[in-house]
Structure formats: C-alpha cells, structure tokens
Amino acid sequence: MVRNIKMIKTERLILRPWVETDAETLYKYASDRRVSELALWPCHTSVEMSRVVIRDIFRPNPYCFAITLKKSGEPIGCIGLVPQGAEHFTASHTEREIGYWIGFPFWNQGLVSEALKALVAYCSAIPDIASLLITTDARNIASQRVAGKCAFAQFSDYEYDGIRTLAFRRTLNSRCPWCGNDPLYIRYHDKEWGRPVTDDRTLFEFLVLESAQAGLAWITILRKREAYRKAFVDFDYTLVAAMTPDDEERLTHFDGIVRNRRKIHSAIVNARLFGRIVDEFGSFYNYIIGFFPCGKRIVNDVPSIESLPASSAISDAISKDMRHRGFTFFGTTICYAFLQATGFIDDHLNSCPSKSAQ
Fold it and tell me: Do residues 13 and 1 lie in contact, with contact meaning Cβ atoms separated by under 8 Å?
C-alpha cells in the first residue's frame, strides 16, 4: 500500500524520509561496527556506499525514516518497515517487521523507544497492518528492552545466518479486553475511561456511579447512567446536597437506578461533603491531585490485564481521608476505580490505542 509519507514528530525527534544529502552523516554513524554488528547489516565503508544505500534501499521504501534530532536536524539513525520479502522472520500478509538502529553516541537516551512508539502509532492507522514484528540479535539487550518498553512480546528464539535471534510481536489496535464486544462498554472505554477529568460536576458523577457499583458489574451501572442523571438532577452536587428525606424516599422507587436505600442516602451525604471539599480546596480536582506525587497524574506500565492492580497506596490514602471526612461507599477499591475512570491514573494496556503517552 503506497502512501504519501509525511514527517512524524515526537518530543525530541523528527522521523522523515532520507535524502541523498544525508550520506555523509549516515556514513559517520553507519561505519561504526558497534552499531552494524548488532543491527545485522554490513558496516558502511565509504560515503559513496551510504549514498547508494539511501538511493537504492532507503528512498524506494515509503516506510523508511531517518531519525533526526529536532534541535539540530541531524539524522542519527534509521527506523522503518522492512520491505516485504526481505524480513529476518517470515511474517504473515498482515504483519510487518520493523527495523531500527541509532548511532552509538545516542545509545541509552530513550531515543529509539521514542521513535518506535511514534512509528507504532503511525502504523496503527494503516488498515492492512494487524501486527508488527521486531527481530534482534540475542546479545542486543538494549534492543530487547526497547521492544518490551513498547509493548512487544517475545514469541520466538531462532537462528538467523548462524546468529541466535529473538523475535517480538505487537498486535495493533488491541483494546483493553475488559470492555468485550458491548458497544456501550467499547464507547465508554474509547471516549472516557482514563481520560483526565477536571470539572467538579463530572467528578461528582463518577463518585455517585462508582459508589453505586459496589457489589455490581460496571456495565450494569453504565446502562443505568441516564436514569441516574435524571434521578440526581444532572449530577449537580449542590442540588443533590439539598435533597430531603422525602427526596431520598422518592429515589428508592425511582425506576432505572439501583434502589438501595443505603447507597441513595450515601450519594446525598457524599454530595454535602463533596461541597465542603470544593469550598476548602477550590475544587474536588485540586483535592484529589494533591495526593499525587508532584501533583501529576500517573500513567502506569500495564503489559497485560493480569497486571492491573485493584488499589494503590494513593487510593488507600484518599479513601482513608474521605472516610474520616464522613464519605461512605468509597473504600480503596472503589476509589481506585474512580481514579482510573477519571484519568488520574491511566491503566490502559500498553498496547491499547487509548493509552496516554508516557
């Protein structure tokens, strides 16, 4: 599939097509045997050889990029999709192999990981690519770390031209599996879960919904969400806080919500306490983010669904403080789910398209 290739920009890099005027700089780094031996290609012996490589190998490949420094514009390495038929590992028609290397002076600076994440994101938009492969010399520990950091999993250990080689695979566009095939769940996962929320009304909404979930499946609450919106006056915490015992009794008969008297009472009491926190801290967001190191949200490394935690030291601290303030139905597990839902913590799988940048 031929595409018009544009530059890919990251925090420190620009990935762009090679041009023949890059030959001298390419030779500077590609003539280093420390690089070529681990990258499994011949060491460059002249500027002219580098020029020929650019002209005959790099340029014809629409998915071959020079890794260039944003500040200087200098090409310091190469990354791209290996031409079909030239792979080190036999791939299926929906798989493409990625090759990459970087000049020795730039090793151990996280630049290859930065470039690889950008290329993976780029490839995710190509419909006929379902998965990506990386092959690396078994001695190349740094390359294996890059693969792991970018959510590639090892699946093969084999010999290539007499060299022990490891193969890694990453499936593209693999959503977090917990949302299954339910359209409502998928829409919630793609559009809301893990996305930062700062406004108090939405934070109160999730406080009510997460508290209502206790003992139930989250999809059950999502299906009742609009009923909750009507019952709790569009989640206006000031209006909920003003509800009377008669309102509480009325809500125990309100169709479409969990008609548990204790949970309904909790939502009303929590609304009053929520308002006090807003008065004390300026916003509920300010209160919650104050428990996070340096006041910054957390993007967790989540290689598999099995590695997802149910709570954390932060959720322990928040739920303990809120319990002391009088909140109910907000233990550490519910608190952690609240933090995930409202984006204070991003627990999307590393391979998920909704994952925030690290």
Answer: no
